[in-house]
Amino acid sequence: MRISATLYMTDGTIGPVRLARELEGRGFDGLYVPEHTHIPVPRETPYPGGDLPPECARMLSPFVALAQAAAVTERITLGTNIALVAQHDPIDLAKQVATLDHLSGGRVTLGIGYGWNREEAEDHGVPWPHRRAVVRDRMALMRALWAEQPTEYESEYGSVRASEVHPKPRRAPRKRLGKGPLHGPLTLIGGAAGPGLFAHIAEYADGWLPVGGSGLRRALPALRTAWAEAGREAADLYVALTAVAPEAGKLAHFAELGVDEVIVQLPAAGEAQVCAALDAAQEAISPP
Questions:
Q1: Which SS3 state, helix, strand or coil, does residue 77 take?
Q2: How many domains does the chain have?
Q3: Cis omega before residue 82 (within 30°)?
Q4: Which of 208, 85, 179 has its CA nearest to residue 137?
Q5: 243-270: per-residue pLDDT in tens?
Q6: Separation of alpha carbons 146 and 99, rounded Å
Q7: DSSP 112
Q8: For residue 260, what are the contacts with CB-CB under 8 A and spacing of at least 6?
C-alpha cells in the first residue's frame, strides 16, 4: 500500500520544493495538494467540516505548485486533492494536466471533485444544481483532447473541434464496456459513498478518493459491484484515502480492505512543524 501526504499549501506554509524533496527523501510515495481559487465574502454555503479553515482562501494553484515539485523530484507521484474541474476552461485544463504529466514523466494523479462552495462555483459561471453534470462533461471534453487521434466533442456545456494537441498524458488507455477507451492520467473522484458517485467513477474515472476511512467496509463492495457492472477490469480500480492520521493499526486495516494508497494529512504550517509531522508519521508507518 502506497503512503503519500497532503496539506493545505498556502503562501504561509512550507513550499512545494522543500516538501517534495522531504517526501521523496523519506520514502513517501506522493504529494497531493488541494484547490480553491477564492472564498467569496459574504458566503452562505457552510463548510462541510464545521469552521472554514483560513487556509482555504490562501491556497496556491495546485498545478503551479506541483510543477515546482516535479522539477526537484524523480519518483513521487503528483496529485490534486481535489481539482475543481467545473471551475476551469476544459481545453486549458487538459493542456495543463498533460503538460505536467509530460514534464514529470507520467507521475500525475488527477483527483477531481464537485466542490462544496456554491458562491465560488457561481463566480466561475457554474450552475450549482448542474455541477456534477458539468464535471462529467468537462472530463469527456478533456479526454477527447487526450485521445490518440483528433476527436471532436460537443454537448450542451461545451465543445471542441477535432484537433491536433500535444503532449498527451502518458498513461495507457483503459478499456470500458460499450464505450471508447479512457484516456488521460490516473483519475480519482472524491465524494461521499453512494450509487450516483460510484456510477460516475465506473463510467469515467479510475477510482475513488474519499476523505478518511469511515464506512469503507460497507462501501467498497458496492463500488466494486458498480465497477464490474460497467465492464471495468477489477485490477484497474484504484482507491486512495485522503486526510488520514497515520496510525499503524489503522493502516493495517486499510491494507486488509484492499486500499491502494493512504494520503497522510500534514498541518498547514511552516517547514519545522511539517517536518516534525513527517517524523511522527514515519514512526507510525515503520515503528522501530
A1: strand
A2: 1
A3: yes
A4: 85
A5: 999 887 889 999 999 999 999 999 999 9
A6: 11
A7: E
A8: 1, 2, 207, 238, 239, 240
Cα separation, 14 vs 140, in Å, equals 35
Closest to 93 (Cα-Cα) out of 112, 69, 78: 112
Q: Which three cell numbers stand for residue 189?
A: 473522484
**CATH number, residue 147:** 3.20.20.30
> Is residue 287 over pLDDT 80?
no
Boundaries of domain holding 16: 2-285
Percent of all residues in the chain with a pLDDT value above 90, rounded to a whole number: 92
Cα 102 from Cα 96, distance rounded (Å): 10
Left (φ > 0), alpha (ψ -120 to 50) or beta: where does 125 sit?
Answer: left
Q: Which of 88, 190, 197 is nearest to 145 (CA)?
A: 88
Q: CA nearest 242: which of 83, 19, 32?
A: 32
pTM: 0.96
